[in-house]
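subagent[fold] <- orchestrator: predict structure for attached chain, return tokens only, no commentary.
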Amino acid sequence: MMFSTKITQSFPSQLFFHILLLHLWWGSRTDGTLVGNVTIVSITSYQYLKVIPGYEAGIDYVNARFPNLHFQHELIFQKSIYSCDVLADYSVNFAAEFYYRRKWSASDLVIFSAPMCSGELLQLASITGYWNVPVVSIVGTSPTISNRKKYPTALTTGPLNNSVLANFFKAFLSHFAWTTLCLICDNNDVVAYYKANCGIIKTELKRPKFDIQTVTVDSKKGRDLVDYDAALVTAGKSARVIIILARSDVTRQFMIFAHKKNMTQGDYVFFYVEPHTKSNLPEFPNLDWRTGDLDDEVARVALTLLIVITFDNGPSIDQLPSKTAAFIKNRTASQYNITVPPEQKVSAIAVSAFETTLMFALIANETVNRPETDHKPNLNDGASFAKAFLNRTFVLPTENLYVTSGGERYPDILASQLNSTSGYFEPVSLYNAQMEALSRPFGRNYSWPKGTPPVNEPYCGFTGQNLVCRENTQAATILTIAVALAAVLAVMLCLLPLSRYIMWRLALSDQWWLLDYGPGLFKALQARRYSNWTDRLSEVDQKANNTVSMMAIAILY
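subagent[fold] -> orchestrator:
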């Protein structure tokens, strides 16, 4: 096999770009059978440079198997544009500069394909539709991309899909009768994937069925500068279901803080979205409670309440031919100066680049071999090329890959929970994206601290203003008032005889002159004679007070 590499600096915008033109062909390609040239153009951010060898491995693979086709690859990137979220502002200009500098014949097929963000995909899909040129994303997706009238040349073949993620949450939350949720969204540009997740979930999970609150954080300056406490307090006041849309190290910190705030006792449930089951991308490290810090054991306990959502792309990684995997790792090291440890798997996105290139070759081969009256098949019709993908299953070395009638790949989703014994996340539920169905084929159940899933909201609501609680409060208030009135009435009834007795004594003392004055009685009366009427009343008051005190003691006991 022969390689020809040409590196130039171009574009009149005074920005310096590396344009890597990679031609791969086999020495036997001189028999005159070549009838189609396919150029894959990848405009990518620097963070995804590591997955580009997947395209190169695909080109190596198809050029060896389709003698009537010649695949080549052009890579456009700038090292200073690290994230695809930033690249979205420039990608249309880069594509236009490349497209208008060349003349294309009917035997030429140009495909813009790269690990694009959602915003970049939509912008390119508009202009490539006008050019009648295919555009294929292996990362970013959008619900609107399936509009074939608006985007007739656009496809998504990536191992993850935002629309599928939103559909999964609809099914999963409905299964547990959870309708109130809070999204904790990381606004960090480097992980624009989570910003896209946040947007699609808010768009698709609408009222009146779902009530969504959002808390925004930004880990761009470092995970230690995120105000975890404030975010959790806000989330806890509005929902029992909390979805964390941030990278794994930030999510781990959230769960540690949640545990310290007693939010992992069974009243709340947390979700984390991990885009890849096996990843060698630094932006998307796999979640693990073991990091070697002092919080490992706290994290192990806290993460048992976390449900991890991943796209089921592990099998395609494992089925990647060993020769192809070695090719990708070698190219990553030799061409892009990025070392991949021997034991590390190829990322799902790089595998997707390889698979997508194979699908291009299958459709291009069908196109050039299609019987035509003039025997001049037209590879330059991007809309027809894209249409050939629709509602079709491609049999590939890695998997059988289905593309929907809307031009999207719908990968399945796994929902996993930490096994407290093994210390590893294990799948519990499988979501079939095509069937939109949840199942538990792994023989496991979810573990809940209280034995049952958390309720959707507190009994009296998050503000304590639920109608049932207001009615109960009113009833309790009425009962309290009634008891108080009864107590007052009882006291009054008890005091009534006493008041009558006091009045009787007063009246009796005022009638002393009606008594017969015998010697003995007169002497007694003389002994109890008072100097004035106030002394007499004081004695009566004292007796009354003694009687009241005795009655009060009797009531208390």
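orchestrator: received. Logging for downstream: Residues 11 and 97 are 7 Å apart (CA to CA). The mean pLDDT is 82.
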